[in-house]
Amino acid sequence: MENIWIEHKGKKILVNDYTGIKLEREMIAHLNDAIGLVANLTPGTEVLMLIDFTGAFTTPGYIEVARKTEKETIEKYKVKRAVLGITGAKEILLKGFNLFAKQKLTPFQTRQEALDYLIK
Question: Which pLDDT value is given to residue 105?
Answer without folding.
Answer: 83
